[in-house]
Amino acid sequence: ENFYSNGKLLITGEYLVLHGALALAVPVRTGQEMIVSPGHEDHVLRWESYYEGRCWFEARFSVPGMKILSTSDPDTADYLKNILEQAGKMNKGFLETKSSWYIRANLGFDRTWGLGSSSSLISNIASWFGIDPFKLFFATQKGSGYDIACARADGPIWYRLMIGSPVIQKVNFDPPFADKLAFVYSGAKQDSSASVSKFLDSVRFTGTARQRITDIGRELPMATSLMEFDALINEHEDIMSDLLGLPKVHDERFLDYQGSIKSLGAWGGDFLLATHESGHKAIRDYF
Q1: What is each CA distance from 124 to 26, 28, 112, 249, in whole angstroms?
Q2: Looking at residue 228, what DSSP letter applies?
Q3: CA angle, corner 183, sides to 180 and 35, nearest 5?
Q4: Helix crossing, 133-140 with 117-129: angle to 10°?
Q5: 59 by DSSP, 3-state: which?
Q6: Nearest-CA neighbor of 102 among 54, 149, 169, 40?
Q7: DSSP code for 230
Q8: What is the DSSP string of 242-285?
């Protein structure tokens, strides 16, 4: 059996999406494939994860029981074990339908990029077990679940948590000035779970801030000019900078850049959205 889920980028609503703000998010063209086949060792589930043809993680688990028999990375094995155990609680006895399994996961992007290696994994495991991916996500992760929505989406979405339940709406986000926008990897990976925990524990905000972030998420896909688009992402950066007590990435690292820059997802790492009136070449040349 083959399963596939998209990676993701959060364009607006970082952090506040946890508290009911609307977020604009997009699936990306790369993702994670999971191939499930019979194994060769009785009562063993063998897992191997690959990127660009190289195995970066492997583990063997007992079936039943999910005891870690061997692994190249104990922390990753514990993380995977927890997801598989939770999935097993949601579809009892599923793994015991066969005595041996071999799973190969092929990641289409560098896992340090923050494009959704965890969410695409959870989405694929949920598909394999025949369970709700959001239930599996919320049972194992801290976060809004927008990345699970992107894992299954075929285009841009608006995402919102309403009384803790995901509300997903397709949106047309195809700016006429797309040739003047680019996604740039910042070179720093943020721990999304730790970043979310810190925000939930320490940041206080007003309903006004949440409403304005929601409005920006709705207005951004409707922008007809780069000037209008820049004004919206700059306002979004101002609001989040004030809430988090952190400097904007443009001010902190790229003060001489002659366009706009917006942090995407956890501040301080992962991807940036950069704009420039002169287009992609100017962005590429600068960064």
Answers
A1: 18, 16, 19, 33
A2: H
A3: 135
A4: 130
A5: strand
A6: 40
A7: H
A8: HHHT---HHHHH-TT-SS-EEE-SSTTSSEEEEE-TT-HHHHHH
Give me the pLDDT at residue 267, please.
80
List b or e across 192-231, with b for residues whose CB sees 16 or more CB atoms inside 10 angstroms. beebbeebeeeeebeeebbebbbebbebbbebeebeebbe
Alpha helices (runs of H) in 95-176, residue ranges in sequence order: 117-129, 133-140, 146-152
Sheet strands (E) in 39-99: 44-51, 54-62, 68-71
What pLDDT score does 203 carry? 65
pTM over 0.90: yes
CA distance 69 to 46: 10
Residue 29 has which token pair?
A: 């063209």
**What stretches in the chain show pLDDT beneath 70?**
188-206, 269
